[in-house]
Amino acid sequence: MTKKVLGRGLGAFFPEYNDDEGENASREKIKTAVPLEPSEKVNVVLDIPVDHIRANPHQPRKDFNQESLDELAGSIKKHGLIQPITVRYIGEKRFELISGERRLRASKLVGVDEIPAYVREVNDEQMIAFALIENIQREELNPLEVAMGYQRLMEECNYTQGEVAERVGKNRSTVTNMMRLLQLPDFLQAALRDEKISTGHARALISVENESDQKTILKKILKKSLSVRQTEKVVRSLSKKDEQADRGKTKIKDSPFLNQIEKRLRNNLSTKVNIRQKGDGGEIRIEYYSNDDLERLLQILDEES
Known about the structure:
Blueprint: E1 28-30, E2 44-49, E3 53-54, H1 66-79, E4 85-91, E5 94-99, H2 101-109, E6 114-120, H3 124-138, H4 143-157, H5 161-168, H6 172-180, H7 186-193, H8 199-206, H9 211-224, H10 228-250, H11 256-269, E7 273-278, E8 281-286, H12 291-304
Parallel strand pairs: 1-2, 3-5, 4-6
Antiparallel strand pairs: 2-6, 4-5, 7-8
C-alpha cells in the first residue's frame, strides 16, 4: 500500500495521478534506445541512456547518504531497476530528471548504460512541486530542505503560504512553522542539518530572541542531551526571567485573567502573543515572521470579526 504522506500530494499537481495505483497505471512500456522522436512520446516508459539525462535543477535534496546509495546500487546490480525514474523531454533527445535522483545516481555507480524512465510533460512549477513531494514521500528530507522547498514554491511559483499548504496537503500553520526554521542563525541551522538537534529543539529556540542565549542553550542541549521538553522548560525559564525583569522596570503585574486570555490568543493565532497592563488599559503584542504570516493573521482576525 502506498504511504500517503502529504494528503492531496501529487494529485494536487497531476489530476491523472492515482496514489493507490502509482505511476505504473496506464503506462506504455517501450523498449528502445530513443530511436523515435521523444517529443512524440509522453506518458510512456523509455529506456534512456543515462548520459542523456541531466540533473533536476529544482532538486530540494542537497545531501545524499553514500551508504544508502551503495545499498541501492547493490540492489540495482542484482535485480535491476524496479521503479523507473521520471523525466521530461528538453530537446535533441536529451531529458531532464523530474524525480528519482537516488536511483539515477545508484545506476551510474554500477555502470548502467540505460535506465527506464517515465516521460512526462510538465512545466517548471510542476517540476519544483514534483521534486519536493517525491522526496518527502520516498525519503525524508531534512527540515531545512523542506523549508527551502516551500520557500522556492513561494518565490519561483509566486505562491502564498496558504497555497503552498494546499498544494502539499499540510496545515498552513505547519508550513509557517517549518519556514520559520530558515530564520534561525547559521550555527543553529548547522546543528539541525547535522542532526545534533531535532526540529522540536529548533522550534523551541526560535522564540529566544538573544543569539547569545541561543548559543548557551544549544551548549546545554549538546552537553546534557536535553530532550525537547527539557529544552522548552529551559526556554520558558529564560522567558520568565525576562518577563520579571520587564515587570520590575515598568512595575506591571499580570493577572490570572490576562494570562488566560494571552494563552487563548497564542493557541488561536499559532504565534507568540504578549499582553501588558498599562493603568486601566494595556497593549497586546502579536508577533509575525513574514508578510505571508501577517496575511494569515489578518485572515484569522477577519474571520473572527
